[in-house]
Amino acid sequence: MPSHDASELSQRLGRQAEAVCRHYLSHGRRQGNYWLVGDVRNTPGRSMFVRLKGPETGKGAAGHWTDAATGEYGDLLDVIREACGLVDFKDVADEARSFLSLPHPEPNEHRSRKPAARTGSSEAARRLFTMAQPITGTLAEAYLRKRGIAAFHETGALRFHPRCYYRPDEHEPTEIWPAMIAAVTDLGGRITGGHRTWLDPDGFSEATLGKAPIDRPKRSMGDLLGHAVRFGVAGSVMAAGEGIETMLSLRCVLPTMPVVAALSAAHLAAIRFPDTLRRLYIARDDDPAGDGAMATLIDRAKQAGIEAIVLSPVLADFNEDLRMPGVDALRAAIRVQIAPQDVARFMDLAA
Q1: Hey, what domains does the chain have and what are their CATH numbers?
Q2: Which of 37, 137, 291, 341 is the most buried (most CB within 10 A)?
Q3: Is 110 helix (H, G, I), strand (E, B) or coil?
Q4: How many angstroms separate the most distant Cα atoms in the chain?
Q5: pLDDT tens digits, residue range 207-226?
């Protein structure tokens, strides 16, 4: 749907803001010039407020809402989407037109609309990353800090989306959870895929480590083979491993070393090497899949004339090492595993 159509629908809904709220946010009530309800999903409460009067557009427009508890905000099209559990914007627009008793557009009215990105495609990953916001001050930053991670320089590959769709399977309804979004890029920096870590809005617990209490709180999308989530620009030296949290944990003790997260053991084994790379540190996870990826990567590096050095955690992975023994113990363990010249280059000079 063209953006001007969305704007027009939003304005029309704003003119009937109270009627929209009474229909889709029936668990709320009017107080002065606002409609108060628990949240955009029509939960009883008072933390979300919808403006019932105001200009048609801009700051303070009728129909605009804010949830003081979560920081979420939007317009009445968002209310309809959430209240009806709709995924595609076309369905949201159709529902809004039905409420407003407007005729539905003819198919040729949509010819100028940007085509929908195929679910799980590289284009869908790029659009999702564009829609997300920087992680500073968000639940994503809080999640990483609870995982013991305090190094946030060169983390532009990470963003936060407060309402990211999650569908358990094709037979289950779509759910909405906050999520950390990571950009998967090729050696040239082009986004080829994405990774979502759905987060628990109630905070961190040892049981979930801050991830949402769902079956698969981590999922990838797009073209991943050979590519990775990148922190820092690789030169002659870099480190590679599986998880985002694992590699950011290493950056807490090697803050200037470029690192990449391949997101799985299979993809770690297939990462592409920069032409400038001369020494590769392999941050292995302590499990059979991690050992297999390590062996394959060592062979590939050797064939490419690249020195490969394995970094082994004390526990299951380097994030566990960071959280359990602590940053000083992790630094001491890494110091004796990396080349002496890299101690001076990436550890001592950065301290």
Answers
A1: 3-110 (3.90.580.10), 122-222 (3.90.980), 232-348 (3.40.1360.10)
A2: 37
A3: helix
A4: 73
A5: 789 999 999 999 999 999 99
